[in-house]
Amino acid sequence: MAILLKGKEVSARIKDELKEETAKMKTRGINPGLAVIIVGDDPASRVYVNNKKKACEYCGINSYEYALPKETTEAELLKLIDELNNDPKISGILCQLPVPKHIKEQSIINAINPNKDVDAFHPVNVGKIMTGDYDFVPCTPAGVMELIKESGIDVNGKECVVVGRSNIVGKPMSMLLLHKNGTVTICHSHTKNLAEKTKKADILVAAVGIPNFITGDMIKEGAVVIDVGINRIAPKKLVGDVEFESAEKVAAAITPVPGGVGPMTIAMLMKNTLKAAEINN
Length: 281
Ligand code: GUN
What we know:
With about 280 residues, the chain is an alpha/beta fold. It is built from ten helices and eleven strands. The protein binds guanine. Guanine binds near residues 96, 139 and 168. The site of guanine has 8 residues, from strand 4 and helix 6.
């Protein structure tokens, strides 16, 4: 039976540390503030945004929500971002994705001041992640690295397999593992003989967005399995990209869904917001 990597508990510890850090920053006259933009009424996005606001409140970070109707034009959204870029009370800006189809996601990402880009999605920050000289680490991959550390496993020299190549998770995840001297394989929808690849992984990260996609027979005995997926398969039933029941029988350590990577992502967002407040002060 695998050890559970309980992101909920680890993130609570991190948020307690960040709460103290925020209080210390305030004594130096620095008041961190996070602007969260949500366009439209996607129910999953609403839940994520509410959780981000709650975490800000817990850590003592000011949060400013901008809830815009789904008809908002790209020009209107760009104007708001420009205002937030120039607003000294805003340390970090996050536009919850996805945005409605008539808005170009990359235009929005490109418009955010890289020094306020707490998601680390701006090309400047993406480039910095490639070189290893970065201020902001993208929140989900950063949270995964913390959980791997928590599992007691040293990435150095390990076979790491990342399933999924998104800009938000798969690609930066691969870079962070590479910076820690992992031997990284990136798999995706065109990968042939996927199970052959995943079975070689000492550290397996699943980030494909398909419920129960990775099954126990695709996992090496004793692997660390990190499940980034959050898939709602019934009104009250969330599952990951890994079939938990079969996977936990072979893995040495595994993240649960919910309560694994999800809460870590939010803790890392808080960390990036404090970093942004320091940088912009
Ligand atoms: N949508 C899903 N994950 C994320 C994230 O990490 N940041 C933003 N801005 N939107 C998301």
